[in-house]
Amino acid sequence: MSATPVIAIFDVGKTNKKLFLFDENYQIVFEKTARFLETVDEDGFPCENIESLRLSVFDSLSEVFRMPQFKVKAVNFSAYGASFIYVGEDGKPLTPLYNYLKEFPEELSEQFYAKYGGKDKVSVQTASPALGSLNSGLQLYRLKKEQPDVFNRVANALHLPQYMSYLLTGKAYSDLTSIGCHTCLWDFEQNRYHEWTQQEGIALKLPSIQPANKVMPVLFPGNNYKVGIGLHDSSAALIPYLVNFHEPFILISTGTWCISLNPFNQQPLTTDELKDDCLSYLQYQGKPVKASRLFSGNEHEQQVKRIAAHFDTDIIKYRNVVFDPEIINYLKSKELSVEQDPRAKISAFGKRDLSEYRNDTEAYHQLILDLVNIQVYSTGLVLKGTKVKRIFVDGGFSKNSVFMHLLAQAFPNIEVFSASMAQATAVGAALAIHKEWNSKPVPNDIIQLKYYSANQTIDI
């Protein structure tokens, strides 16, 4: 029996590190998950264990190559952003992989923005709200100022996906999806690196930019699989939608964060939009994607605990609450003691008195009503000025009947769908180099859709 041609995708999250093998129909035929103990940097702050990650790539590939039922045609990577690895001339990391949650020195931040025209100006030009270490370009700036000797020895500054590719190919490249994600490196107005990267000598540390469909031969003799240059995970997750749908759409990617992504909105960010927590990404074809964010998944988790505690129920109950339009009509007719400001970044529910509700189901419907109110405003920030015909919701809230019905009611002139797909980020990384490993056309059933109107759902 002949071996099944597959692509291996390493999908590296902050917590879970996953390896998937996809066949030519984009079905997962093998998967493996690992977690590594974090290490600490020189200040004792937790950070990724680069050595554990490096070893796991080689160990996992060795395991896969020993499986006679699979023939690995290509390997690619998706990983979280704001993650620089500084490589010396010998190809080895010079520092830990500093954690983007590490506090950025206020004095250094003020010095940087003062030198280059102020926070508002730089943020608008780079489509990057001032986020400290989450602006990975500022991590490089910090390295230069605090550890100049180390900075001078840096041969290549690589974002995590590109470092993983480098391990297999020995070739150092930069990728637009990693550069164009709140890094403060890219000038979206000029469509090139921002001038500060030249003035500070940062640009010299960044290898040449290559397209997302670039592949290279593997470094090791006797192997003939191809290796992609890797992608930023949020941008990778958008690829299946861009490949399958050509009419303008918005993707609301939901999890801990609810991120509204509009790949059909290339209007420059305004200062007001930045203050509303909007930013721009660069998608895999190099075009800007306007995005807005809410911390709603986290809020939902906290408020469900509060409801369960108040009504003495189990939080598991709220995983599958069925939408009840009568409850919504009743809640909308009620005079509320706390009004919802739709522009707020958190909902009004945390201030509501739970004793005002007749039961926990009613309280839960109010929670989702409040969350949808702020979601509508957040999504509206990236919707305006575009001819969007559809909204796709993936992730946790896509399975929430109450959320999806209320979202459909809130956008009566736009088709609203819940979308489900096994491992969108990994699928996106595979699709980016589809032609290099797959002899079949891209299947049109990768994404399963469920249509929501105000009171009904239809499977498609």
Automatic annotation (TrEMBL):
One of the record's GO cellular component terms: cytosol
Molecular function GO terms recorded: D-xylulokinase activity
Domain Carbohydrate kinase FGGY C-terminal positions: 247-436
CDD domains the UniProt entry points to: ASKHA_NBD_FGGY_NaCK-like
This protein's UniProt keywords: Kinase, Transferase
Residues annotated as domain Carbohydrate kinase FGGY N-terminal: 7-228
This protein's record includes keyword Kinase: yes
InterPro entries, per database record: ATPase_NBD, FGGY_C_2, FGGY_N
Family annotation (Pfam families): FGGY_C_2, FGGY_N
A single BP term in Gene Ontology: xylulose metabolic process
Similarity comment: family membership: Belongs to the FGGY kinase family.
Protein name: Carbohydrate kinase
Species name: Mucilaginibacter conchicola
